[in-house]
Amino acid sequence: MGRWEPNARERLAKAALELYSERGYEQTTVAEIAKRAGLTERTFFRHYADKREVLFGGSVALQDLFVNAVAEAPGPAAPIDAAAAGLEAAAAVFDGRREHSRQRQAVIAANTELQERELIKLASLSAALADALRRRGVTEPAASLTAEAGVAVFKVGFERWTAAAEERTLSQVMRESLEELKAVTAGG
Amino acid sequence: MGRWEPNARERLAKAALELYSERGYEQTTVAEIAKRAGLTERTFFRHYADKREVLFGGSVALQDLFVNAVAEAPGPAAPIDAAAAGLEAAAAVFDGRREHSRQRQAVIAANTELQERELIKLASLSAALADALRRRGVTEPAASLTAEAGVAVFKVGFERWTAAAEERTLSQVMRESLEELKAVTAGG
């Protein structure tokens, strides 16, 4: 087997999620993930630090997309509209990935350690968004509150999008969740 | 030394925070905390599971206060006003405790494990608030979004209240942060 394997990273992620869904996260070993993907453990560790990180391999890219969209929103855009641009950019990543996302959500919901890792991911996203908003000239506490609001919409919207009967796109669900947040904070 | 020590729980919490601030959280042992408080390790473990939980001993009581105030808000109150009642009840707990809270925030900011524990506390609070709002008849996603908004205000407000130059009460800062959240989500 050569050192370079086409799509190794994606194959490992797919194999890991399959095994976590079938047997449970705790019961799955890196050796089993590598075997299912037709790769070696050594190749696994070239791509992921451990079996937990397979589930969070896209976090940095997602955060970058979200933050860049906030940074590049039109100059006069209100903070919440810049955050909305970030939500749109983030949502686009998940086109065609609802079933994968549902499986991932189920695996995370079944394990406390993974839930904690997910909370850290969202807190990191919120801090990065607040930073991007401050660089746009938004002052505190508006920057932090807008960032928290954006992450709340992402979190709640994502949960709704992965619910059993949901058929709308993530982008649609995010937009509706943002409108709903605006309505509740307006006292509606 | 008798089995029952007056104010043992508070004395241990005070001693722990002092030692964490002086020497760092990692460098402090349970034995040292007990000694500083003039108590035994055995007494420590009657009150706290470990040295981390000393910093989170008030979390359950805080969550109960917050949630009960939401549950008991006047029947016709809009969800965000019920959440505001919860913020008021929670803020009252911290009267006269700003210096303690500042020290605690500094200890937590210096340690990743403690930051994670704090995130779990806030996620648990958000889930409990959403539950209380649903029991008031608030539907989804409004219940979850209002709960997330309430926790965002609590988090950002608390950080502002513990900032160096801040002199207003936590209640005032929370109210202002909620108004600011309303302004940013309204696109202002």
UniProtKB/TrEMBL annotation, chains A, B:
<dbReference type="InterPro" id="IPR009057">
    <property type="entry name" value="Homeodomain-like_sf"/>
</dbReference>
<dbReference type="InterPro" id="IPR001647">
    <property type="entry name" value="HTH_TetR"/>
</dbReference>
<dbReference type="InterPro" id="IPR050109">
    <property type="entry name" value="HTH-type_TetR-like_transc_reg"/>
</dbReference>
<dbReference type="Pfam" id="PF17754">
    <property type="entry name" value="TetR_C_14"/>
</dbReference>
<dbReference type="InterPro" id="IPR041347">
    <property type="entry name" value="MftR_C"/>
</dbReference>
<dbReference type="Pfam" id="PF00440">
    <property type="entry name" value="TetR_N"/>
</dbReference>
<feature type="DNA-binding region" description="H-T-H motif">
    <location>
        <begin position="29"/>
        <end position="48"/>
    </location>
</feature>
<keyword id="KW-0805">Transcription regulation</keyword>
<keyword id="KW-0238">DNA-binding</keyword>
<protein>
    <submittedName>
        <fullName>TetR/AcrR family transcriptional regulator</fullName>
    </submittedName>
</protein>
<keyword id="KW-0804">Transcription</keyword>
<dbReference type="GO" id="GO:0000976">
    <property type="term" value="F:transcription cis-regulatory region binding"/>
</dbReference>
<feature type="domain" description="HTH tetR-type">
    <location>
        <begin position="6"/>
        <end position="66"/>
    </location>
</feature>
<dbReference type="GO" id="GO:0003700">
    <property type="term" value="F:DNA-binding transcription factor activity"/>
</dbReference>
